[in-house]
Amino acid sequence: MNSVHFSSGTGEHAVVITRVAEQQWHAVENGQVVGRGDASRRPDGRLFISIDSWHDTVFDQLATAMLADLPRPLYTVVDEADLDLTSSWERAGFEARRREWEYLVPTDPRVTGLDSVQPPSGVTTVPAGEAQEVPLRALDRAIRDEVEAAVGWQAMPAEVLPRPDGTTLLDPSKYAVAAQSDHYVGLVRVSPITRQPRIGLIAVRADRHRRGVARALLAHALGSLHRSGTATAWAEVNESNAAAVALFEGVGAQRVSSNLELVHR
């Protein structure tokens, strides 16, 4: 793999940046690895990079080498509270693309106020693992088409974007759905992570908005977690999604941190 020599390092010796693998770079000074860079392609095809180093100079040198080797656009994600890391990426030419709030969500219906919430008239909730796969996939595709026609799925986190082969729904057992007549009209996905279950997605067909379907799905998901002995769940919400922010904050979810997705075009 190619190497790049930098005359200034963290001490008296030059730093050598080497692309040691297709998606990995090392910064070596005086025979010691003083920094690492990695690239990974997400399921939607976007290329994300990360850099781990103790010194700003080495970070900048790794960033320069990686940017020279990789195609644009490039993405990275940082904890917004880490001002030094954010500043390092900005020096490399990255800028904020989206902000995602991270929430800690109580599951106790006496706390959330969801104890008396029921689905709208004519709507029933199908628990996770019981939804029929064919109509579930049809709902997923329909909702994606609606979002794409509105704000676009590029506004969504990488994990819910279409994969290169067109697959958009990997594990149907994680989804509970709202059903009306013989159609599915809404869905919620919960990833049953042992320490902190994660509410990964709540979505409702556009013609069923503002009828309480999303609130009923959230009540079902949180209630199920509460009955299983889980006190809190985790959720991430795009700051521009006012409806989702209102939904979670309306049930007492606490905003605990935020992540920035940065892009270099």
From TrEMBL:
GO molecular function terms listed in the Swiss-Prot or TrEMBL record: acyltransferase activity, transferring groups other than amino-acyl groups
Domain N-acetyltransferase: 123-265
UniProt organism field: Streptomyces colonosanans
Protein's UniProt keywords contain Transferase: yes
Pfam families in alphabetical order: Acetyltransf_1
Keyword annotations: Acyltransferase, Transferase
PROSITE patterns: GNAT
Identification of the protein by name: GNAT family N-acetyltransferase
Transmembrane segments: none
Tagged with keyword Cell membrane: no
